[in-house]
Amino acid sequence: MFTTNRVGLWSDPTEFRVTADRTVAYAEATNDPIAAHLDGTVAPPVFAVVPGFSAMAGQTLALVPEEVAGKILHGQHDIHLRRPIVPGDVLTTRAQVVGVHSRRSGVVVTTVVETRDEAAELVNEQYFTAFFREAEHTGDVGRTAPAHSMPEGVAGLDAVATIAQRFDDDQTFRYAKASGDTMPIHLDEDFARRVGLPGIIVHGLCTMAFASHALIRSFAADDPGRLRRLAVRFSAPGRPGQEISTRVWSLGGDQYAFTTVDGEGARLLTDGRAEFAA
Q1: How confident is the model at residue 195 (pLDDT cuts 50, 70, 90)?
Q2: In the chain, fewer beta carbons within 10 Å around the N or the C end?
Q3: Which residues, other chains included, contact 252 with Cβ-Cβ below 8 Å and sequence gap of 6+?
Q4: What secondary structure does DSSP assign to 153-211, as a single string?
C-alpha cells in the first residue's frame, strides 16, 4: 500500500544557487535558439525542474512501496511561472504529494513543487504526475493536477502553426549532464532494450523543453518572460536523431493547445497547454 499519511507533508527546503554556466548549459543541451537563454540573461522555462528535481523525486518515492518504485513513469508535467529564473538567484525548493489515485492499470501520484527566491516570493509552482504501472491501492486521497486536456473539437480546427525540429544523435547524453537526470534508459542502449524499450529514449522533459522554445519563438517574439504556464502529457518517448513537429491551435486570449509528434506521426506530447502574458 502507498503511505498516504504522507500526503500533504512538505519536504525540507533545499537551496539552489543559479549560475549562468548552469542555465546556458541547459539551453545548449536542448538546442534552444533563444538569445536570452543562450547568453545567460534568463534560464529556459523548463530549467525550473532542475532546482526541484531531488525534492520532487524524493517526496514522491517516499510514499511508494519499494516493489513498485521501479515502475514509475513520468505521466504529466505542468509548470506555472511567476517570473523567469535568472543567474544569481538563490532559490529554495520544497515538495509535497497532494494526491494518490487508483486507475485500472496502476496508481497516479501527484506532487507539487514550489520554488521561492530569497525574498520568499514564489518563482514557480509545478505539478509532477507520476504513474506507477501495475501498482494497486485502495482509497483515493487528495487531489490531482489542474486540467490541461485538449478541448473537444479543437484538434479538428486548422492549426495556427506547425514547428519542425530534430533531436540530435547525442541529445540524451547532453541533456543528462545539464539536467542531472542520468537514468540508464537515456544513456545505455543495452539497459533500455532489457526493460522493453527500442533503445535509448529522449528525456520527456527534454522534449518539453523543445516545445517550449518553439512556442516562445512563435507566439512571444522570443520573449521568455511572457510564458506563464506550460503543461504536457508524456504519451510516448522520442528517440535520438528523430525529426519532430509541434502543431499548435489557438484557444484565444494568448492561450494555445499543442501536440508534438515524431516523423512517423507517433504522439510524444499530448494535451499540451501554453499560456502567455499579453
Answers
A1: confident
A2: C
A3: none
A4: TGGGSPPSEEEEEE--TTHHHHHHHHH----GGGT-HHHHHHTT-SS----HHHHHHHH
Position 61 scores a pLDDT of 94
59 touches 95 (CB < 8 A):
yes
Contact 273, 257 (CB under 8 A): yes
pLDDT per residue over 200-210, tens digit each? Answer: 999 999 999 99
CA-CA-CA-CA torsion for 76, 81, 87, 90, nearest 10 degrees?
Answer: -90
Please give the Cα distance from 150 to 259 (Å, whole number): 9
Q: pTM of whole model > 0.85?
A: yes
- DSSP states of 107-121: EEEEEEEEEE-TT--
Q: Which pLDDT score, from 0 to 100, does residue 14 have?
A: 95
Residue 8's region, left for phi above 0, alpha for psi from -120 to 50, else beta, is left
Q: Which amino acid is at 62?
A: A
